[in-house]
Amino acid sequence: MAGQKFQYDESGGTFYYFVLSFLALILIPTTIYYWPRKKKEDPGKSKEECQCADCLKKKRILANAEPYRALKSWTIKLTIVLGWALLLFLTYRVSQFDYEMASFDPFEILGVPPSSSQAEIKKAYYRLSKVLHPDKETGDEKSFMMLSKAYQALTDEVAKENYEKYGNPDGPGAMSFGIALPSWIVEKENSVWVLGLYGLVFMVAMPSAVGVWWYRSIRFSGDKVLLDTTQMYFYFIHKTPHMLLKRALMVLAASLEFDKRHNSQVQERQSDNDEVPALIRQLPNLNEKCKEHPLCRMYSIKARAILHAHLSRIPLNPETLERDRQFVVKKCPYLVQEMVSCVHQLVMMAYARRVPRLPSIETIENCMKMSPMIIQGLWEFKSPLLQLPHLTEDHLYFMNKKRHVKNLQQFAQLKPEESRTLLKNLTDFEYENTMKVLGKMPLIDFSIRCEVIDDENTNVVTAGAIVTVTVTLERKDMKTLFGDTKAPEKQGINDDANEEAAGDDDDAAATAVPAKKTSAWAKPRKGGKGKGGKKPAQNQKNNQKKAPPKATAAAAAATAAASEDQTATGNSDAESDAGGADNSDIESAACSGSEDEEKGNKNHSSLDDDDDEEWERLQAKLNKRERLEGKSRLSHTVHCPFFPEEKQEYWWTYICDRKSRTLLTAPYHVTNLVEKEEIQLKFTAPRWPGVYTFTVCLRSDSYLGMDQQQELKLDVQKAPVPPTDHPQWDLSESEPEHNDQQENLSDYTTDTSDEEDSD
Predict the structure, then answer these.
(1) Is the domain of 399 the same as that of 292?
(2) What's the pTM?
(3) In this predicted model, what pLDDT tens digit does every residue of 629-640 receive, in sequence order?
(4) Cα–Cα–Cα angle for 258, 264, 267, nearest 5°?
(5) How many domains, in total, are found in the chain?
(6) What's the count of helices (H) and strands (E) in the chain, helices before strands?
């Protein structure tokens, strides 16, 4: 291109610009994210924390977890300070370059005012040239050239015109592009070194770094679990569809994260040959003679013994096995979550007919039980009161003998003088510390609402419809129960009892109206109505017609009660929204009714109300989706002195069928329950009409004795037959309905013995 010139940076100015911009681009975010900040400890917060011996020991372990923390902090600070010093130096140099390029003023160079005459300009030029001429001792070639250029710009007519027009006495010069590389890079004598450095960086270092990163990353799943470990979980879960808790612990201990061949962080000591066998002799039912691989390998037996010792709270050698215990226990929550995910994937594959055997619901629940057991260092058959500090088996025996206190909720509802009497062996400090920890434990109000969002009538469940169960979790502190004298029922999921209850007489299955049952700790409330618990009167009448003779009276009474309530309050959806504060009183929910009669009795006002409610529900879902886009993993800190790290409260919620022992929805891991959260669980309704009983479960991954469940009864109606005269719907080649029914009869269980009447 004419008038343009490319040149390398001889003076280094352009290169300074490049280095300055590159350094600023790296240094600013590095300073923001990596500058060490000393956290100020709030004295009030430290007083609220547990002060038991185990918690203080855990704090010391966490403080000493990084022995080089101070050196690392000073190194980071020094590096950042040196980087900023270099940035300031480059900024100063660049500013000098700009000043030299923009400071050409002939009057200033000659040292004369702009109103000077030609004689004064010549006199000043001769005077300065005698000083700046290169032949003189005080001469400066660069300054003399600038002096000559300034004199020419003020005396020569052409140069003066160029200066006034272009700011340069030489006239418009060629456009110059500087390449931000020093000229020595392209010099012939340096070519070998430059090419060698280029090949070392771009052909050796970068491919090696990418290869190492890729080799390490492909070995792990998204949750940083070894893929070989995940494959082992799939193998054992498929091999043992009904896995017991101790079997699940054996599989967990066999994780390859504990094998030195797969994890370089594992430490193997010579002392293990003596300490591990001695520890095994203290542990019953360890099953160390198992011959299955890799359950029989030494790393697996060692990890299993450490886990059993952790759950039994057996003290270990602080220099050897105690460090191994901290390493093993620290990785268990991620491994348990991976096991739960593996069970769910196998269940979905079994539904798709890709695997022959379906893992039972007990398998996934036993996997979930391991998480709170390991976090609290306690076997599941032990009392949940042992999660409190300072309490021992002797205290529990006395508490059970005097007041029959079985769980944390019952203990929290005792009067202060009663609880102090039960713990009279504790000092005042220990008692206050115990009650402080108890008061900060979670108290969950667990309620559910069932609906079919995509249908016109959201309260009617038809065969094959997508059912949406909205689970509402509201967290409070346990201290809200302090002083409540109401004796609570035992909280928790009792699978055996639920199976027996699911197989009772047909009277409970004749109607879809849920039976109210108070929560494990909640006080009785007057007039409380949960969401999804009521049905329109027309649906009640329809169910009354279909009910067998045994349940006629009960259905009639329920119909009359529903009619009175609906006349006073309006439709059931509006009542559910207004009664959200009392959702914890509901232990079951139902969606039932007759679609044909509902359509026949609707008027324009009810349609408008339904549209408004549907719009509000849609807006709530959009807001919920926006909140979940930045989902947090911070909720509340768990009191877990035997777990070597800080732990946040997480929860699992899912829907299962106890009678067929199957899982209906994927377990949703709630990681951000601070005050209140809503979770939507979706599943496909059974293909054949009838009354079905499912169970909505809530399990804690951090505390024992905090699990809850509610029954969900679905009155599934027959799906409406599509119009056969529609030109796009040709049902002539479809399979007979009878054959399809015989093929899928075992998809779900039903509580009704006579399904033909419900058709």
Answers:
(1) no
(2) 0.66
(3) 456 778 899 999
(4) 65
(5) 6
(6) 28, 12
